[in-house]
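Task: sequence in, structure out. Protein: Replication factor C subunit 3.
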Amino acid sequence: MSANMEGFEESRKGKEIAVDTIKPGKDHLPWVEKYRPDTLDDVTGHEGVVTTLKKLLANKKFPHLLFYGPPGTGKTSTILAVAREIYGPSYKSMVLELNASDDRGIDVVRDQIKVFASSRQIFQRGGEENARSNFKLVILDEADAMTNVAQNALRRVIEQYTTHTRFCILANYTHKLNPALLSRCTRFRFSPLPEAAIDKRIMQVIDAEKVKIAPDAKAALLELSKGDMRRALNVLQACHTGLEHPGKDTITLSQVYLCVGSPDPADIDTILTSILNDDWTTAYDTVSTLKRERGLALVDILEKLSAELMALNLKEKTKIALLSKLADIEYRLANGGSEKIQTSAAIGVIKDSMELEV
Ligand SMILES: Nc1ncnc2c1ncn2[C@@H]1O[C@H](COP(=O)(O)OP(=O)(O)O)[C@@H](O)[C@H]1O
Ligand SMILES: [Mg+2]
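Result:
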C-alpha cells in the first residue's frame, strides 16, 4: 500500500466515528457541509459509480472524468472524496477547483490552469508506486454554464496539459456540453438519489444531531426532496432549528411541508372543500388566510390543487376546462400577474368548471 493510501486509510478511520460524534470546529457549519462525505464509502446511492471509480483508482491509468446529473446528488462530494483518496489529507494543494459560473472567461480559466499545472508538486515522491498521484486534478464545476467558445478553448487546454493533469468536469446536463469535450472524458451519471439512499444518510445525521422526527414527517421529507440530498439535509436542519426545544421536540409533518414551502395536503383539502361548497367570498377568505399563515405561493397551491382535482371522478369536459383555464392562470402568474387577482380567478375557474358536472 502506498504512503498516500495509508494516509487515506487513517483519515477514513477518523471519519467513521466522526459521523457519530460531533466534529470539533465543524459545529458552526450547515449540515450539508458538516456531513459532506469524506470517503467514497460515505457516498450513498451510487454503488455502480463508486465501484467503477475505485477500480479506476486501483488502475494507474486515470482518465479525465465527467460527472453529470441534477443538483444535490453528490457530484462535488464524490470528486473531492476521490481527490482525498489519491492525495491523502493534504489533497488541497494538488487540486484546482474552478467554477465555470463565476470565472469571467476562458482566458482566466486558461491562465489559472496553466499556472497550476506547471507549478512543481512539492511533495512529489516519484517512483512507480506513486505514479498514480503524479498528476494534478482540475475540477471544473458547472461546466455546462460555459459558452460554446469557452468549451472549445477548454478542449485544447485539456489536451495541452494531459501529461500532468487530469480534468473532472461537473455538469447538470450533458446536452449543453460540447461533444468534442464529452468524447475526452469517461462519463458517470449521477441520477436523482433513491429514497433509500437519502434515508441512509439522513438517519446518520439524525443520530449524530439527536434529531427527533415523526415517521410520517420523515417519509414526507424523503419524498419532497425528489432525489436531492442537499435539499433533504437543508430542510431537516431548518425544521430542527425551527423547533422551540431542538433535541426535545419532535419534527412534525406540517413543519416539513412548511419548510419545503410545499402546501400541506390537509390545507389543500381545506381549500378545495371550501371552493366547492362555500360561496365565493368565504372561499376567497379561506385561501388567502391559508396563503398568509403558511407563506404559500399561488403557483404551488395550483399545482397541488390541479392534481387533486384530476384525481376526482369528473367528466372529461370538466377536466379539460379546468386544466386549460388553470394553465392560463399559471402562465399569467409566471409573467408577473397579481397574486390577488389570479387567486380570485382560480376560484372562479374551479367554480365555473364544476357547473359542467351538473
Ligand atoms: N450520494 C450522496 N451521499 C451522501 N451525501 C450526499 C450525496 N449526495 C449529496 N450529498 C450531500 O448533499 C450535499 C451536496 O452534495 P454535492 O456533492 O455538493 O452535490 P452536487 O455537486 O451534485 O450538487 C453534500 O454536502 C452532502 O452532504
Ligand atoms: Mg456541485
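The beta strands are 65-68, 95-99, 136-141, 165-171, 186-189.
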